[in-house]
Design brief:
Order of helices and strands: HHEEHEEEEE
Structural class: alpha+beta
Radius of gyration: 20 Å
Strand content: 35-45%
CATH architecture: Roll
Shape: globular
Largest sheet: 7 strands, mixed
CATH class: Alpha Beta
Number of strands: 7
């Protein structure tokens, strides 16, 4: 009986340790994705095309809230020119699935249109994939939120 109880306690401790380790790894992965996202957004604010390109996959599909689709080259060119500022709102979530992360949340895009500052409130989904040790965005889609 004591041997069985000891074996059960050992299994419980091993399971708890594995769960903590997975949770910790997930947190580290989520932090890495968020860091890549922040670096990309910083490059957008600065109009730094080469840095933006580093965080975008070659096969990027970049969809705007007006249904305009852009390739990586088109997105970098447009974002370099616009120097938008994307402000994430509280509550965004990053779900990690191995080497893929899906980020969804709300944000405000601070843009300039015809010389005037325009704020666009959006819901966004981004898909990030780990390639060659780096997290890159492979897909982005936004929808305008009702005003």
């Amino acid at each position: 009986m004591c041997v069985i109880l000891l074996a059960v306690k050992t299994l419980i401790l091993l399971a708890a340790s594995a769960t903590l380790a997975l949770g910790s790894a997930h947190t580290e992965t989520e932090k890495a994705v968020r860091a890549a996202h922040d670096a990309f957004n910083d490059a957008v604010r600065k109009g730094d095309g080469p840095t933006m390109a580093k965080y975008l996959a070659d096969e990027l599909a970049y969809a705007h809230s007006n249904a305009k689709m852009e390739t990586k080259a088109e997105a970098v060119a447009a974002l370099t020119k616009a120097k938008s500022h994307f402000e994430l709102l509280p509550g965004s979530v990053v779900n990690v699935y191995g080497n893929t992360a899906v980020w969804h949340g709300k944000m405000t895009a601070h843009n300039m249109q015809n010389g005037k500052a325009v704020d666009v409130h959006l819901h966004m989904v981004q898909v990030w994939v780990k390639k060659g040790g780096n997290w890159v965005m492979v897909n982005r889609h936004t929808v305008r939120l009702p005003q």
